[in-house]
Amino acid sequence: MNIHLQPLSFKKYSSILIYMFLLMAVVFGSMEIYFEKVYGDLARIGNFPERYFGWRSSQPGIPNDLLKDSPLDEANILVIGDSFSAARIWQTKLVADGLKVGTMTWSELKEKEALPSDLGKTLRISGFKGRYVIIESVERLFQGRMMALSKAQLHQVSKTPFVVDTNFPLYPFTSRERVSWSKLNGGAWGVSALYNSIKLFLNLPQNYLKSGAVQAVNFDGCQLFTHRLCNYGIFVEGDFDKHTFNSIDNVLAVNRNLKAEGIQPIWMIIPDKATVYLGYGKFNKYPYQNIWQNFAQYPELLALDLGTEFVNKSRTVKDFYYPNDTHLSVNGSLYMGSVMEKQLRNVMANQAKSVSP
Question: Average pLDDT in the 107-128 region?
Answer without folding.
Answer: 81
